[in-house]
Amino acid sequence: MLAQLKALSSGLEGVVVYLDRATHLGRAPSDPENGIRKPLDFSAHTHRPLPVEFYQAETLIAVDPLYQYVSRNHALLVPEREKYYLADLNSLNGTYVKGKKIKEKTPLEEGDVFSLGSAHNSLGVQLSVHYLPALPTNAALLVGYSGGSLRGVPTDMGEMKKFLESRRGFTGNVALLLEGFSTSENLFSSLEQYKRALTEESLLVFYFAGHGDPWNGLQLQGGYLSPQMLYAHLDNIRGNKVVIIDSCHAGTFLEKQFLPENTLVFAATHAEKVAYEGYHGTLANPASMGHFTRALLKVLEGHPQRIDLKRLRTEVGKNFRLARHGQEPEVKGRTIFLPSKINLPAQK
């Protein structure tokens, strides 16, 4: 069973955590020597008896030590009978559901607000629960970094987002990490959330627009993303994965020994080749885009039905801007279908 926890407390707005198993909620202690906050063995920090479910919990949501009204072993979320149940772990300041302090395991309904440490948002940590539909959900993570020299990355990202949200299962599930937000920490944190949220029937699209080199991989804010690093994280995510790389030397992400199962890679060019961007459209809309992204989206828009992405390589490669620069897209991996447009009848 999947659910979302949305943080409502001041300073935490927009933080979303996915649940798919028994989860422990507690305040993370700090390392007194260097101030690094990290989860420790929480059971060693209490003399109170803890329920069996506490030791069965596989995930931990560690609350910042600044929230001193939250205990280290504060509460437990347990999935039962298509709902999550909230149990207080004899915390010092209590656990509240819809403003009322709970004394026993309490079922959470869709949209319920609960608080750790106080019924007041200003003192405790307040969250709301939202149950995700059983139907397969798709998702996309779009990462773009111009490196101070590329002009088309923002347009590439915007057009790719607009296209994916027109396809079944992606609406509201397309995340962007652009420019200063395109750090490895943000990227891996996003992929970790997809690890919890997606099912075996899901499709995850990872798209990158920016600089790449044959030695380090894709340039991010403050670092690089290598094929080994990306695929190590994708390998732990359920369902099918599509990787689309619009960068120079994108073909380095086609190496077979790194490619996870259930993954298709669509690269803008060979490992030894550079990729290009430029202006397109009319004088009224002289936006710059990566030539590969522009060509790929143009071809995809011409296939409103469910489409086998592997079959598009030749069609995309025939685009005159790619051919003019000697840029040849490459595809490798499993055959994966992109779903049809939202307004079309579903195919069997």
Give an overview of the whole structure.
- The chain has a 6-stranded antiparallel β-sheet. It has a 6-stranded mixed β-sheet with strand order 13-12-14-18-19-23, sandwiched between helices.
- It has 348 residues and is an alpha+beta fold.
- The protein folds into 2 domains: 3-131, Tumour Suppressor Smad4; 139-338, 3-Layer(aba) Sandwich (Rossmann fold).
- The relative contact order is 0.10.
- Helices cover 18% and strands 30% of the residues.
- Strand 3 (23-27), helix 1 and strand 4 form a beta-alpha-beta unit.
- Mean pLDDT is 85; it is low at 30-42.
- It contains 7 helices and 24 strands.
Briefly summarize what is shown:
By secondary structure, the chain is of the alpha+beta class. The chain has helices at residues 52-56, 153-164, 184-197, 227-234, 291-301, 313-317, 320-325; strands at 3-7, 16-19, 23-27, 59-63, 75-80, 83-88, 95-97, 100-101, 106-108, 113-116, 125-131, 139-145, 174-178, 203-210, 212-213, 217-220, 223-225, 240-246, 263-267, 277-279, 288-290, 307-308, 330-333, 337-338. Helix content is 18%, strand content 30%.
What tags apply to this protein structure?
348 residues; Rossmann fold; Tumour Suppressor Smad4; 6-stranded mixed β-sheet; single chain; alpha+beta; 18% helix; 2 domains
